[in-house]
From TrEMBL:
It comes from Franconibacter pulveris. Keywords: Activator, Arabinose catabolism, Carbohydrate metabolism, Cytoplasm, DNA-binding, Repressor, Transcription, Transcription regulation. Its main location: cytoplasm. This is Arabinose operon regulatory protein. The keyword Transcription applies. The lineage of its organism: Bacteria, Pseudomonadati, Pseudomonadota, Gammaproteobacteria, Enterobacterales.
Length: 281
């Protein structure tokens, strides 16, 4: 199959934009009936919505079958290995490739099916709303005019917010406001190299032991583990979407020592910061 730089549905297309969106209509034995294979992922995010048929996503020996209504989020650097399910006649899926705005970070932290591939399936009350917004994003992105991309980005922001809103509505036990405030405080102080739980606890008017208990009870991880995840996630975002020097990326997420930052980053991701950045290009 000849590569092209003009068709985003075929290998070789350069996603050199803040947002590109479309529909991939895969039918058995059709010209699009092949597996996408990007072992190093991409430097932006891809959001994928199955609308017909079934697809299969593979990652290091694991598989997930996508069915109509399933939404998958592939962050920068995540393995892309997916195609039509061999037992399905077709797999029609809509997609949006995008570089996020900085303040979207929290909205892009989705539950995963494996590795870092996020998953969300709207309930019946929100399915139509999400599918309509997804189509509007595609229409805007492919439309004429100098503001087409900006309009599509704003519609994508709506979609991400609708998901957050739907999840909050469905939570049986809302997150304790003190835990939520602690998360926000930690996120706002990722650059602090001298971090201690007592400062967070004081901010939310709890003892360190009580905060630690609430945090683990509601989020399933310790305060330090949650902060580490946020630091690495933010570092990956900066490495994949900016040309900021690696030492500056490390300082931005609280690592004064670049060598130590590189060791921690590699332990968490399997690649050094420079290797990760190279794989996103």
């Amino acid at each position: 199959m000849a590569e092209t730089q003009n068709d985003p549905l075929l290998p070789g297309y350069s996603f050199n934009a803040h947002l590109v969106a479309g529909l991939t209509p895969i039918e058995a034995n059709g010209y699009l009936d092949f597996f996408v294979d990007r072992p190093l992922g991409m430097k932006g995010f891809i959001l994928n919505l199955t609308i017909r048929g079934e697809g299969v996503v593979k990652n290091q020996g694991q598989e997930f079958v996508c069915r109509p209504g399933d939404m998958l989020l592939f962050p920068p650097g995540e393995v892309h290995h997916y195609g039509r399910h061999p037992e399905a006649k077709e797999w029609y899926h809509q997609w949006v490739y995008f570089r996020p705005r900085a303040y979207w970070h929290e909205w892009l932290n989705w539950p995963t099916i494996f590795a870092h591939t996020g998953f969300y399936r709207p309930d019946d009350a929100h399915q139509l709303q999400c599918s309509t917004l997804f189509q509007e994003i595609i229409n805007a992105a492919q439309g004429p005019g100098r503001y087409a991309e900006l309009l599509a980005i704003n519609l994508l922001e709506q979609l991400l917010l609708r998901r957050v809103e739907a999840i909050n509505e469905s939570m049986k036990a809302p997150l304790d406001n003190r835990v939520r405030d602690a998360c926000q405080y930690i996120s706002d102080h990722l650059a602090d190299s001298h971090f201690d739980i007592s400062s967070v606890a004081q901010h939310v008017c709890l003892s360190p032991s009580r905060l630690s208990h609430l945090f683990r009870q509601q989020l399933g991880v310790s305060v330090l583990s949650w902060r580490e995840d946020q630091r690495i996630s933010q570092a990956k975002l900066l490495l994949s979407t900016t040309r900021m020097p690696i030492a500056s990326v490390g300082r931005n997420v609280g690592f004064e020592d670049q060598l130590y930052f590189s060791r921690v980053f590699k332990k968490c991701t399997g690649a050094s910061p420079s290797e990760f950045r190279a794989g996103c290009e």
